[in-house]
Every structure is written in C-alpha cells, then in structure tokens.
Amino acid sequence: MEINEFNELVKQRECIENEIKENLEFLESSENKNIGMHGKLVDSEGFPRNDIDIYKIRIARNKIICLKNDYLNINKKIEEYLHEIHSSKPVIRVERDKENYSNSNDDLNDINIKPITNIEDIEFAKNNVFALVDEIVENSPSHKAGIKLNDQIFEFANIKKEGNNININNTDNIFKKISNFMKENPSKIQLKILRQGAIYHCNIFPDKTSTGLYIGCHLVPITK
C-alpha cells in the first residue's frame, strides 16, 4: 500500500465516523423519543408505534450496522499498514494495558504557536537534543499536534538528556525510558522541540491500535 492509499483510508474512516454519529443523533433525538439502536418499535399491545417514523428508524439502524462493519475493515487495513511501515524500524510502540488506557481528546492539536526564542533557552535546547523526527504520517496524532520533519526533541514527557554529553548508550537509555513511559498508556504526551532556532511545546494524543499506542512519527537518535 502506498502512502496516498493510506491517507485515503484515513479520510474514509473519518467520514464513516461522522456518518455513524449523524445516524445515532437521529435515533437518539427527541423526534424519535430517544429510541436509539435497541428501543422497541411496537407498543405494549404489539402494534407498530405511531409516535415515531419506524421506516426511517429501521433505515438508520441498518445503516449504522453496515457502517460499523466498513469501519472495522478499514481500521484493520490501516493497522496492517502501520505495522508494515514501522516493523523494520525502532518506533515508539508498546503493548498497551487496556484497563488503564484512556484516550482523551482534551486540548486536541494543542501546540504553542508562539515559539520561545530566549537565547539561553535556545542554547540549552541545542545542547540537550537527543532525537530527530525523520518520518511523519499524515493525519497521525503527531501530525495533528504540529510535529514536523527534522524537529529535534530535547524533552519527551519530562524525559530528557542527563549530563553534558550523549552517546549511543545514553541514547538507548533515553529511548528505554520513553518505552517504559508509553507502557503507562498516556492519553497525552508533552514534547519540547527545537525547530529552526526556536523552541515549541507540543501535545500528542496517541491512538490505540491492536499492536499498542500509535503516535505516527519515527525518531532517530542524535549522538554527539
């Protein structure tokens, strides 16, 4: 599958989500007495109810069932593609704990638009970057958070470089800490990045997949 096909699948999934939402809102409206997906269409005597539009309700219910099946099929293709493109690279993906996972969308796309340009802060960031973003998937959580190619990360959810020098061993230790942090199933990941001589603060809201949490970017170590 090519990236264009993947992006098209993501768009289709979003359209399906919106269509399911619209039909559910119709079923749960006061017009239909909040009948939903499982409310009875007959009265206490077994006759069709005359206070709701049974025909439209049946159409909406059937539509939702079909859309959910389409959603599952598309989601499976998306997950297979994500697994394929990242299987040969050390992406930040770990098995999630389903019981502890929460997927909050509060402050979605939260990015500090105004960059920090204080000279001392910039110098600190330059001396402490440990990872470079070398891959971004369009419409992924990282993309929506404002992360860009070649962004340099100097803090990942309070995980940062220790000491003045960083080598391969220290980098491995940082990535191990990140992996352990991801096992806690965070609903929000705060990043501090250096981009073209300015500092940005970004918040990523991971997606959950059958293989673990997904953020949609690939990081490579920066060693000095």
UniProtKB/TrEMBL annotation:
Signal peptide: none annotated. GO terms for biological process: proteasome regulatory particle assembly. Gene3D superfamilies: 2.30.42.10, 6.10.140.1710. Residues 7-87 form the Nas2 N-terminal domain. Keywords: Chaperone, Proteasome. InterPro entries: Nas2_N, PDZ_sf, PSMD9. GO terms for cellular component: cytoplasm; nucleus; proteasome complex. It holds the Pfam family Nas2_N. This is 26S proteasome non-ATPase regulatory subunit 9, putative. The lineage of its organism: Eukaryota, Sar, Alveolata, Apicomplexa, Aconoidasida.
